[in-house]
Specification:
The two termini are 32 Å apart. This protein folds into 2 domains: 145 residues, no CATH class; 184 residues, no CATH class. The strands form 6 sheets. Strands 1-9-8-11 form a 4-stranded mixed β-sheet, with helices on both faces. Strands 3-5-4 form a 3-stranded antiparallel β-sheet. The relative contact order is 0.11. Helix content is 46%, strand content 11%. By secondary structure, the protein is an alpha+beta fold. About 6% of the residues have low confidence. Bound molecules: iron/sulfur cluster (2 copies). One iron/sulfur cluster binds next to α5. One iron/sulfur cluster binds next to loops.
Amino acid sequence: MQNSALNIIIPENFCYTCLPNCAVCCKNWSIDIDEETYKNLSKVEWEKISEKFVGRKKFIEENNRKYFELIDDKCIFLDDDKYCLIHKKLGFDAKTSTCKIYPFKFIKTADGIIVRLSFVCPSIIKNTGIPLEEQIAEIEKIASLKPEQMRRINETVAVNEDFKISWPDYKKLENFILDLLKTGNNYESSLKSAAKFLRIVLEGLKKKEEISGILEKIDKKNLFVRMDTSGEKKENDDTFTKKQRLYYALFVGYEFVGRAKGSVFKKYSNLVKLILKKGTLELNGKKFDVSRVDQTYFNIENKENMKLVKKYIEHLIFTKWHLLPTDFSTPNLVSGYSLILVIYAIVKWFSKAFAVLRGTSVVELCDVENAVSIVDLNYAGHITKETLFLNSPVFSKICNLLISQNNFEEIII
Ligand code: SF4
Ligand code: SF4
């Protein structure tokens, strides 16, 4: 839906109202502070406001950026009643832009400013509160807080490293993919069909065909990949070598590690273990064997569970997450879509892992909610690589090459 002075594009079927006693967004990640807010907050004698500040650092600095100090992974300004002390004592305007804007993110595109939502927020996950369409004026105010921080998507989109297309042509491809994902009874088959579709598009571009011409020739029925009716794909290891899995685990796993103080390597190693299907996983402070995750059942025919998974994947595509530039990688449609497939696979793995944590072998909606939240927080939400050991365009090229391989979706899903 598009209807505002700023040309804000609101995704359909979303509700949001901040929940009391929640504060999920005030923990488990490094909250950055803009320079002006930092100066203002530094002048306040916080020790006189609360004893918790006595003898404690309130802010930390890393790579020339300021963050709130975390205590037990919670922002130091989070009060015991789960309300923000800055908000309580100084008002909403005194907060840093990250906190004012959450759970929204704004992506500038040729069509307008797309509103992306954080799936870490329980109100977004459970779709509770006021429909976003009724909050356009408020969302527009939030969007105009820091327009310079808004991320942008180029109007010319790279399909892969060799071909670039115009925005209207890109939109045709995106609509085709979103349409494919709504078609068919088996979601994994639809996800793979879209990967196959992109390869057909590339073949057409190599022959110098126009996008509309390529689309006209495509028969959707032929795109669908046959699946086992149980929805659970048979063991991949017969088809893909251990070496192949290792490359994917190391490189694709790395691509997905965002920044979060102190836990980067844990996140990376968890992902590598899940792709390799080996080792001991640590989640919410508990350790368990990855083989238990593999033996857990994720029924892709469960409508309730899949509704959330589909909504999340569709939202990533609609908000062009796959085209967002990161500090070290150059996005293109083919590699970006492959990363969407990885997101799907990780949501599935983590859903199973949460079922294991509950002591059951069947995934339920609460496991999917936890999984979507953890994946959005740790793997999709923060895509800066500045704290990691590798930060080179060469690495990005290897990663793009691996995820653009013909059999990528078979390995990862
Ligand atoms: S996570 Fe969402 S519901 Fe919870 S406090 Fe933050 S904005 Fe509110
Ligand atoms: S400053 Fe306030 S709103 Fe922001 S993370 Fe800390 S407690 Fe939460």
